[in-house]
Amino acid sequence: MFRFILYGELILLIPSGCLADYEWLSDKLKVLNKGTALASQKHQKLVPEHAFALSVHLNKNNLDTIELDKEQALAYLRKENLSIHEEKRGFALALYEGLPLGWVNLLGTRSTTFILCLANPACVSPESLAPGLALGTTGIQAMD
C-alpha cells in the first residue's frame, strides 16, 4: 500500500508502512528526500518528476512510450530537442533498449525533453503504479 503526500508543491509516493517513520524522522532530522517524487503542481497542471519515470512502481505498459536509438538517447541525455516524426502528441516515456530515460513531449514533428505524464489517468491507475493507488476525478487518492 502507498500514500500520496503533498510536500509543498511536490507530490510524493510513500509506502504506507513507512509514513509514521518519515514523519518522526522529519521532526528530528533534516530529511533531504523521502519517498518517490511523482509530480509538481504548477499553474493548474501536474508536472511529473524524473524520479517517477525511473520508479520501479511505474508500469510502462500503460503509458505512451517511444523507443530511442543510441544517437537520440544521447541527444536526450544532453537535453537537446529531438527530431521525432511521431503522429502521437503529448507526453511519452522515452526508452532506450527498453529502459526508461525520462519524459518527452511529442509535438508532431519534433519533441522536447520534459517530465510529464499524470495528465493521463491511465498512468496512475492501481495497475500501472502499484496496488493501493488511484487517480480519481477529484485528484490523486490513496486507496486501502
Task: Explain how this protein is built.
The chain has 144 residues and is α+β, with helices and mostly antiparallel strands. It folds into 2 domains: 77 residues, no CATH class; 53 residues, Archaeosine Trna-guanine Transglycosylase, Chain: A, domain 4. Helix content is 16%, strand content 38%. It contains 3 helices and 10 strands. It has a 4-stranded antiparallel beta sheet with strand order 1-2-3-4. A 4-stranded mixed beta sheet has the order 5-6-7-8. Strands 9-10 form a two-stranded antiparallel sheet. The N and C termini lie close together (7 Å). The relative contact order is 0.18.
Number of helices: 3
The structural domain count equals 2
Uncertain runs are 114-144
End-to-end Cα distance: 7 Å
What share of residues are in beta strands?
35-45%
- Structural Rg: 16 Å
Strand arrangement in the largest pleated sheet: 1-2-3-4
**Biggest sheet record:** 4 strands, antiparallel
Shape: elongated
Structural class: alpha+beta
Compressed to H and E, one letter per element, the order equals EEHEEHEHEEEEE
Number of strands: 10
Give the rounded overall mean pLDDT.
Answer: 74
**Portion of residues within helices:** 10-25%
